[in-house]
Amino acid sequence: MSLEKVSDIPKLSKNLCERLLRDLEEAKRPVLQAVKCSLDNSEYNPKVGYLTPGAKMVRTELNVASVQKMSRAIFVLEILLRNLETGAVNTKREIYYICKGEVKHDPALKPLDFQDQSESDSVIDFICEMLECYREELNCYANDRGGQTYSNQLVVTETLPDGTKAVVDLSSLGTTPFQPKNRPQSLRLKAKKKIDFCLVVESEGTANTLVANGFCKRHNCILLGAQGVPSNAVRGWCKLISEELSVPIYFFGDLDAYTMQNIYRTLKAGSAASLIRNADYSAPEVRFLGVLPEDIKKFDLSDYPVKESDPTEGRQLKKAADALKNDPFFRDKKNKGVAKLLEWLIKNKRRCEQQSYFMVDPRDPQMPEKIIVEKIKRGEYL
Amino acid sequence: MAKQKITTSSTAEYFSKNLQQVGFSSPTKAVLTTLKEAVDNSLDACEEEGIMPELTVEIKKLGAGTLKNTDLVQISVEDNGPGLNVEDVPSVFGEYLASSKFGRGRCSRGQQGIGISAATTWAQLTTARGAKVITKTAKMRQAAAMTVEVDIKHNKGTIKDKKSVDWDRPHGVSVEFQIDGRIQLGGDGGLVSYLLGTTLVNPHLTLKYRLPDQEWQTIKRVSEVVPEIPEATEPHPHTMKLGEFIAHSHLFGKMSLRSWFKKGFSRITDNTIQEFVKNGLNKKYIDESIDKLNETQFKEVFAAMQKTELMSPSTKSVITIGEEAFSKSVRRLGEVDFFAVVTRKPTICDFKPVAVEVAVARLKTPERSGEEGEQQATVLRFANRVPLQFDKAACAMVNAIETVNWRTYGISQPRDSVPLGPYVIAISLVSPFIKFKNASKETVDASDELVEEIRRALIQAGQRLSRHIKKESREADLEEKLRHIEQFCPILVDCLCRIAKAPAARKKKAAEGLVKLLGRDINQAKEHLEEAVNAAEIAKSKGKFQVIEEEKADVIEATEVEAEMEKEEGKKGKKGDDKKKSKEKGRKGSAKEKVAER
Q1: H or E segment and range at residue B217
Q2: A157 — phi, psi (to 5°)?
Q3: How many A/B residue pairs have CB atoms within 8 Å?
Q4: CB pair distance less than 8 Å for B491 and A109
Q5: Which residue, A154, B184, B409, B439, shows the most beta carbons closer than 10 Å to its own?
Q6: CB pair distance less than 8 Å for A71 and B492
């Protein structure tokens, strides 16, 4: 995939519109092609370690049925290009309202009106796939969710849009975490002292507890909370840490099918929906620290049966079985360990939460920390 | 075991304590069941004598009831049936299990003779007043009026205040109940639904009715044919149990087994008797008198009979409304847009003859504008031409509706549910032996065979309708495509030109090119529409479905008005014809014309 630089997007867009216009002048049917972003077009390359797009493309031919979609796409593209020109940024929700505002001021645009944000979101996604760019490159950002980071050694330098630089020493923030941005490309990292590891905790709450109990004081590390399924910000941030600091990254989360498929896999190898940006938004070096099935035995942790009768849990099990068959990440022998773990979950139908480490010695608040560090030392991870 | 005195109680005593089992489980149901039982009896009586039924129903609220949260409700039903002899009145209205229809194997509405006596009991229990009956047969000079009560202890009807009265009818029965109840007009279990349903499956019925706070309404008959009730057939041997089999023999007295087989059962011939012998029937018994056979011998005969394969029971005893009459009746449902009716041939389900008829109709609704509303279709269920209004979830008819994939016919449907939209799905099940789930006849047992038979009828109706729905959707599709060209082409070209910074000349050329290439799609859509229209026309001409065209009604009205004007003016004018033509032309504002305009 040849990704052009951010500055080329206006040019790319102009070329695209020019091509469409030329086809129309000749009464030829313009065809737009975009990478098919779905699991059936995902390939896993063990050398790069993330999901890459296959050869399948989605062809959108201009006809009477697609003229609405095409008109909406070009209409939204114009708004996004205007943003790029002025340097303005917006969230998807704001873009939705900007579109509504445009329609309000020009009644001729009424047919384009969006009834729901999901409609404008899908148009934005379509534009990204058409131009093969990230949404962030169109100055459209999602809310900076998750990734609150603590460290006594990390220094972040951010290049601002006006070229000035901001330096943030995380050790000077006290108990305030550093929040990585959706566009980690503008950040540079430096370690004041050698950092031994980076720990990504699935639960933001547990990450905060570990910090409050002095985790970062006792270890030269970076600690961050993923807050569930990692956002682009978390994914890009982990990639940056892995690349710039060359520190091992460990993921600590629940032992269940949802965590393995939706959280860990996305952090490590990206997702099928974001095939075109997995290169920048995945951290293939992340290792799964736990909770592991052997931890349940070793520490006598409380685990729970997965209720197949519960629609959500039942669906997760079905999805897990499907992932073993169809997901190139789990099918690759490089990820044999993770696939085996998924098989274990399907077979045993049990789940165990990350917080269960707190039951090992209920009177010792540092026990989870001790177990985590011990596991890293002994190499008890996947 | 402790010694306790064993007592016996009369049937009336049993039912008076268990009225909930026969439809009197709540004040609302009590009103509906009373009405239903009276109407059923009237219709059965009329049909029995080949009389075109004319029923007058009035329901009044008289005041507060004696029970908590109830009203004193008066329900009166009057018919033009043959009338009852005075001596039969107490048994009909006041005695349980006194029936002229019990176990006859005929498709009558009433079967056991419980319903109307239960209504009298309810009236007696709640208002201490029995049923007021007026009856007159053709032979009577004056009508007889009386009050009937149930002697609960002895299961007997008693007559009070009997007197002769003048009645301006040649014959008929009028019955009036005053009961404690609650009136529910709307909804599945409402009185309106019951009355409309009854007229739907009884096209030959003229019904005049007045509900509380409403004016008199008349629904006229649409068929002049009284359904011919076929003669009952003898029972089929495979539908009997041993006890029944022996009891059946007692009805025939002295008679050889061979003769009894042939007279007392259907589907038994000399050949079949030979088959019985092959399957273990002792030859000696064949010419033996049945009153001499003992229980063991009956058992042997019965076993041989069960082992032998027999022809399925006859379907002759089943009556249907017929597609023609049903079609006319469907129009009485309300403002019907289009509909399809299917009458299946009588068939055998669970060894019982059964006939299924369905009507699927779409109603005209003001909110319908291309898209169907999210409301579930109305389901009307009928068993032996009696509406079933409660417990629909477990009913065979609803199960069958849910198993049909209505989406194939262009009707939206959530998975495994009743379809959505302004549709009415009416299913009429007729059989001399309908298997109800309870004595109050609210739900038909869902056996696999029966569900499949109903399902087939529904599929046929769905297929018939699909042609019309497809035509409609093609029309809408063409409309939408035309609208798209009009709306989006200028916007798309404008935006493209602004981004590409193209001059005005290019803009014009691109707009022309776009309209040209989208025009090709329109031509294709037009072809599809034409195909759909042709297919729909062919289906319509074959009578697969019917469309109620508004134009037709309007034209008739216009013609009538013109005829009157002509009469008045005493001259025939060409003017009127021209006016009519222009009016008709004006109404045909179809998609095709819009295409031409563009």
Answers
A1: strand B217-219
A2: -115, 125
A3: 88
A4: yes
A5: A154
A6: yes
